[in-house]
Records
---
Amino acid sequence: MPTTATQATQSNPAPTADPNWWRQASVYQIYPRSFADSNGDGIGDINGITAKVPYLKNLGIDAVWLSPFYPSALADGGYDVDDYRNVDPLLGTLEDFDAMANALHAAGLKLIVDIVPNHSSDRHQLFREALASPRGSAARNRYIFRDGLGEEGELPPSDWDSVFGGPAWERITEPDGSPGQWYMHIFAKEQPDFNWDNPEVREDFLKTLRFWSDRGVDGFRIDVAHALTKNLEETLPTKADLEAQGEALYLTGQHPYWDRDEVHEIYAEWRRVFNEYNPPRTAVAEAWVHTDRRARYASPEGLGQAFNFDLLQADFDAAQFRKTIIKNLAEAKASGASSTWVFSNHDVVRHATRYGLPASEPSAGGDIMAGQAGKRWLLAGGRQEDVDAELGLRRARAASLLMFALPGSAYLYQGEELGLQEVGNEIPDSARQDPAFFRNKGVEIGRDGCRVPLPWTSAGSSFGFGPGGSHLPQPEWFAGSSVEAQEGQGDSTLSLYRRALALRSQLQTTEALELLETGRDDVLAFRRPNGWTSITNFGTEPFELPAGQLLVSSSPLEAGRLPGAATAWLR
Ligand code: GLC
Ligand code: CA
């Protein structure tokens, strides 16, 4: 849709003013450094994304979510932000960003950007000021500094671990050269946690939200939304104290740093800012919290939507899917949000690989490297020969087609539309980038395997990622999964995604779903208000389909029957 002159006061205006556009949107996550490289330096960039807008449009998505593109030393793939209101010079400029936003909007696509409020990078201006300023100063009070324990303050303030392994505290050297205080970092040591009790920190983030909203950004994905507020009273509990309270502690809202009740005061303030815009800016929380506490993040007075990682953590199993779907739809209804669905993102083993690994115990949740089978595979060194890639892909296609039939928003991760497998131990240690690998050396190989630059062509430099190399090595088998190899192939995963996403727009009516009796425990079927049904066979025995016209299926029918590990839509 054309942008009109009346909207010109705001740069990069969004194409429609429908305030509910997000409720059943198909959102495509781009990991910018690995999507498309326009200038051959081996790093994906903003102009690379702009050049692929026709591809995105043609895929049939509604919105694009960009993982961080801000200036960063990449201690954590860009989730260590040096400056929240700028573009990494390696990726482009603010003008390039505007051109990209305009191109997306002109194609009718919305733009969501990632906000990383729990921590900045250690190169952020505010953190440098904190280091250069004395103990107890206003500058230090923007982060979480404490004196150490022990006679000389040589021990960390608590024995807590960081998510990526190793201690959650790092000692600094004071400006006068003496050994100094410790600062808290839930993630890597290059990611110091902000002090969200400090009104200056709050103000600064409101400024950032307005900065991008004024540039026409339509929504935000909020990184580790459940960690911002902390209770760091005089004596900190030990790891053992916390563990002794078990799972129950997570339900109280009183854990010292995860999912505290008062974090929602922050989001209520953000919501007032979002609502200053027309249409209101949207937000989705990345909050790895107990399912029962997720609705708080998704409330209309808060962020409005929250990721549900339950399907991502489930096995390819009808009972687990059924339970998860019912629970999450009920929960979304109660909170006023729509549900979210996701199988893959930049933090987890790609679902085409997870589903090709031996089935696992249901996951306990809360783990950033979710998907227990995938995690075990990573821990074991990620050998491609452990994966039944064919079965994994077949199931992944079935699961994705099921997801596209569900009410709510579907979040896709770049490359899943190509059926890409995780790259395992083909990435040599010397090429790895993920801090989870370095901080946990020899124990975890980390998340680089889902961040390998996309193959656009079957041959040529970096498989068409760009005119130069690729910042993470691409395996030879990428050739067969490239966009070029799949274009025009009716049975390719790319064709399936295009067909399903095009049909999905006709399902975006009432957010309702009626489960159907199939007579089989391993077959899950449901009907949407427009009369379409989606049927997934999680088992191995073919399933006799009811009467109806076949709209799409993830694998060909066999003598009119739905084979195992396949989904079909009927009208
Ligand atoms: C989120 C991001 C992950 C990052 C972490 C710390 O979980 O998705 O990639 O490492 O936050 O910012
Ligand atoms: Ca580049």
---
Amino acid sequence: MAECSVTVDSTDQMSYNTKVITIDRSCKEFTIRLTHSGMLPKNVMGHNLVISKTADMQAIATEGMSQGLDKDYLKTDDVRIIAYTAMIGAPEKETSVTFDPSTLEVGGDYSFFCTFPGHIAMMKGKVVVK
Ligand code: CU1
């Protein structure tokens, strides 16, 4: 059976606990659960998880910065965003997003990243579609 969900943890060290997320395109729905194991609040060490083509990643993060904290540092109606979670920080422990993976191409160049200002330098990884 296909694995149709994954959990990624984020930390006060400005990191995710994985560098690769594998998405099985045969899943009807795919769920990404983002946890925050740190003690710092959202305005200091907020994290989200956004998926886009790798080529669009930097532009989405830059545009997100100008949106400010109340909009979770993300322009959510940007059509280049494939999926995104809310931004969380302590005391929130987790959030999740469920989306249809059939919009992704097998072998396509996708990434996941955090749009909190400055975090993309460390908080990014590859999305592998199989
Ligand atoms: Cu972050």
